[in-house]
């Protein structure tokens, strides 16, 4: 009489394979958390670098919001040139009234500049949901009287 035996997994094989599967899932979860944390750190570093560029004494930016009710920056070297912050394709850029652009930050959802007590308040929201706010250390532009 022929024996009808089907090959199947034993309990030990099943437990070992489930253990290996759990270890793989744990490693994937750890890698995802690590990359999310690194991305958040990268956004914070990029944000502070952008602030350093805006507040750099060598560039000597001032802010102004004359009649247009739009806040813009003025460099002491180029008084006639206005420098605006704008958001285009999730990239925060410095643009000049002459048409030049300089990318400052990537992956930005929205930003806002407001004036409170003669100081410029800057708030920024990244695509990842991180929100940063600060008061810019820029003086208000005072035209020189000649």
Whole-number total of structural domains: 1
* Lateral arrangement of strands in the main beta sheet: 1-2-3-4-5
Structural class: alpha+beta
| SSE succession | HEEEEEEEE
* Total strand segments: 8
Give the overall shape: rod-shaped
Helix content: 25-40%
- How far apart are the first and last residues' alpha carbons, in Å? 116 Å
Low-confidence stretches: none
Explain what you see:
Its main location: other. InterPro entries: ComGF (IPR016977), N_methyl_site (IPR012902). One of its GO terms (biological process) is establishment of competence for transformation. The structure is a single chain. This protein is α+β, with helices and mostly antiparallel strands and 146 residues long. It has one domain (11-135). The chain contains one helix and eight strands. The longest helix has 44 residues, at 11-54. The chain is rod-shaped. The chain starts with 10 loop residues before the first helix and ends in an 11-residue tail after the last strand. The relative contact order is 0.12. The model has no long low-confidence stretch (mean pLDDT 84).
